[in-house]
Specification:
- The protein is mainly α.
- It has a domain at 66-197: Tetracycline Repressor, domain 2 (Orthogonal Bundle).
- Helices cover 66% and strands 0% of the residues.
- The protein has nine helices and no strands.
- InterPro entries: Homeodomain-like_sf, HTH_TetR, Tet_transcr_reg_TetR-rel_C_sf.
Length: 198
């Protein structure tokens, strides 16, 4: 007699979050399948069945990270009741709070993964995925500052240059947090950078 296939006995989203945290803490090359299965509480065959190989799991973890810890900060830029400077400050402070959250690994998974591309530590498809995410962030910020440019005191700088500056600053903040800087340290750095928006 044929029997029905076994149902998955774990919550895929919760398990994916655990994998994300391992990649975030250890980086892609520093994460083994054993690290993942131990953290996720599943065996290798269940991991392969649910997520595919390590690279596929990593790409899914990146998507999960973006949805939970990435795009939320952008909402601060669109609170139009505030000045542009206040919105940019709140956007960067929101990122800084995430970077130094004691309940999360330090730094930023996207920033960390970006640095791993140069050392050829990421598989080609994952590297292309990370580069695409960074390009999309740059495009989103550029379009935002194009809309804000007229009469907002940023006419001396092109929207793309400002977007590049902010993305570079975000990477720097992430590395500083990874290196032990606390929230107040990051906020001081952000406050210095806000002179651009006077």
């Amino acid at each position: 007699m044929m029997t029905a296939g076994r149902h998955r006995s774990f919550d895929k989203d919760k398990t994916l979050e655990k994998a994300m945290l391992v990649f975030w803490k250890n980086g892609y090359p520093g994460t083994s399948l054993t690290d993942l299965t131990n953290a996720m509480g599943i065996n290798k065959s269940s991991l392969y069945a649910a997520f595919g190989n390590k690279e596929n799991l990593f790409n899914q973890a990146i998507e999960y990270y973006l949805n939970k810890h990435g795009v939320v900060h952008l909402a601060e830029l669109f609170k139009t009741e505030l000045s542009l400077k206040e919105r940019v400050k709140n956007y960067l402070f929101s990122i800084a709070n995430m970077l130094t959250n004691p309940d999360l690994p330090k730094g930023c998974l996207i920033s960390q993964s970006t640095s791993e591309i140069a050392g050829c530590c990421l598989p080609e498809n994952s590297a292309m995925n990370i580069n695409g995410i960074n390009q999309q962030t740059l495009l989103t910020l550029t379009e935002f500052f194009e809309e804000q440019q007229a009469g907002r005191g940023i006419d001396e700088n092109s929207p793309k240059a400002i977007a590049n500056y902010l993305l570079t600053l975000q990477f720097g903040l992430a590395i500083s947090a990874r290196n032990g800087s606390n929230l107040e340290d990051l906020k001081e750095t952000i406050n210095v950078s806000l002179s651009l928006f006077n």
